[in-house]
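so i finally got all the pieces together for this one. its two components total, 726 residues if u count the protein bits. some of the lines might not be protein, just check the labels. i wanna see the whole assembly predicted at once instead of chain by chain like last time, that was a mess tbh
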Amino acid sequence: MSKFKFPSIKETNDLSNLRKEVRNFITKSLNHKEFEPSADAWVFSASPEFSKKLGSMGWLGMSFPKKYGGNERTALERYVVTEELLASGAPVAAHWIADRQSGSQILRYGNEEQKKSIIPKITAGECFFAIGMSEPDSGSDLASVKTKATKIENGWKLEGRKIWSTGAHIANYMIVLVRTNPASEKNRHEGLSQFLVDLSLPNVSVKGIPDMTGQRHFNETLFDNVILSEDALLGVEGKGWSQVVGELALERSGPERFLSHFTLLESFINEFKNILIKSGSKLIGKLIAELQTLRRMSFSIAAMLQNGESPETQAAFVKELGNKFEKTMVETLREFSNIIPLYEWPSQLQNLFEDATLRIPSNSLRGGTTEIMKGIIARQLGLR
Amino acid sequence: MNEELSIILETTSKILNKHVDHKLRQNIDNDNSDLINLWGEIVQLGLPKIAVKDKFNGSGLPLSTTLPIIKLSNNIGAPIPLSETILSNYILSESDINPPSDIITYAIDAKNLKIIGDKISGELISVPYLNLTDKIVFITEIEKIKKVILIENSGEDKELKKNFLSEPRYNLKLNKCKILEMKPINSRINFKHLGAIVRSAQMIGSMEKILDLCIDYCSQRKQFGRALSKFQAIQHQISEMAVELSASSAALSTITNSGDFYKNKKDIAILKIRAGAAAGKVIAISHQVHGAIGFTQEYELAYFTRNLNSWRNDFGNESYWEDLLGKDFLENNNQNLWEYLT
């Protein structure tokens, strides 16, 4: 049952000071109109300039070794920085995936050359990544991927397509999960490998897929017999499954799982505080309780990552609960429009609300569906 | 301290596991020798006075230390007033009253109290386990001073209160009952806050047990030719219970580790809200996956779910604390939400 424990971690003074530092930086950026706060900013709102600025502040690749241009700070420090950025709706989408998972994945499994050439650029906010997991015929059932890499002289030939690759149109690299060998009858997880693919290579094409809100972040990425050098292999041939599972733990436990629409909640409260005092304190109290619990759970996971643990199950808890919280939050605000009709809300708040309403269904799909999260938990409970 | 606590926990666990079974839970009378033996060992271990000051012959451990013990007791489903006794004795000791050494309980509420000389009349509401003890602590305001009062109930009108609880609970009419002790309460102590914390720990202990019961039952019970646990619909329901439980445990560990939680109204509110909400879901799901057997007295699930139903309402239900927390943020400061949270 220890998989379900979330030890309480206190925020030290150093962390609180870092928080203030980031907050001041954001306030300045807002005052200089460097960005407009937006909902779901880590998916939709990309600004390579802003990412570069964060890099120069030392707030990307925070825990990476100095040897590779990193900052050797703790996972808890990184947590504080990402929380502040998310809460303000800052445009962090460009570097998000590189900073959250791809960099760590390269540091863990990559060879010296890969580390030396890529990690410093991630840390500087100059190198962006996309995720190469889902395919047209492989969504939740990730082990069924068909994209394959075949060994050729001095390298590999990559063939297949990846889909829903958020940000691939501005990314430099994609970590691609492929079959290097057919699955064995007993174990479908065998024969998978990860490749580090430079998206500027010949025969790679990235095609946008507008999402239901009309915005572009999704892509389909086609690999039409792309020739890769030998050292494009990331980690060990045939060990792609265990590698990708570790990557998913990094992907699921962070504060973006419950702070994607925080700017909406904050603006809503600032706008209607006087009315809420009279008739909404219970609703707001309920949201505060859930949000604060989620922050603690996620912070606790950051400490586990710091200790070198692999909190895959705990990550599933945070993702599941966080997705639910955001849905409840938007629904709570919707019910409030009974008191003040939506058309009387300030237009910026209306926009945030409508954006959130439309985007909410994707929360419990991306990074693993509710069904997959519950399946992971059920397995840990011994039910599967 | 940690080592001391883990020894106490281990010993408590041994004692409870030796004595507690479902038969005992169904016979909580003061002449049940099994119950008397169990309580005797609890006293020998020093648990009733674990958070009582040294000068009153207690162990002097902070109240937060007792939460894992209380949680354990309700995980095993011990039908004894352990949390009531620990909390009552703590409040007495902190208010400089020497606590009695055996079972003691409290009244969650009191009304129409009148004091004349050293006698008190009025009504005490929701007194757990009054069948096992006649010593009651309660708190009331007299001339704008909050006071702790200790009485001994001697053949007053007591009425078994209909309650969700598996455990007995009473209302009591006092008619010129003798006051044993009355002192101003230690100003740090807020009975409702402490009660909310303790009840939450009890709920979490019980929910852990309920989760285990569901896993065991669904793994053994076969329908349509396979174990219930192999049905995805069942797996997902049980996973949801685990999610609720993990969130409640996280809220509890914040309180347990905060040491001095007297000023921590926010985190207490969060804990009671989270545990109370989880209890609602856990009750519904656990009964759903158990089917009719869970609805019987013979099977132990209902012992735990009935307690949850009651405890989530004690010391303020979710609505009470949500309102309080919402007001704390909306009314008392000029911070925006993010500043308030961080």
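The longest strand of chain B covers residues 169-184.
Chain B is about 50% helix and 20% strand.
anyway lmk what u think
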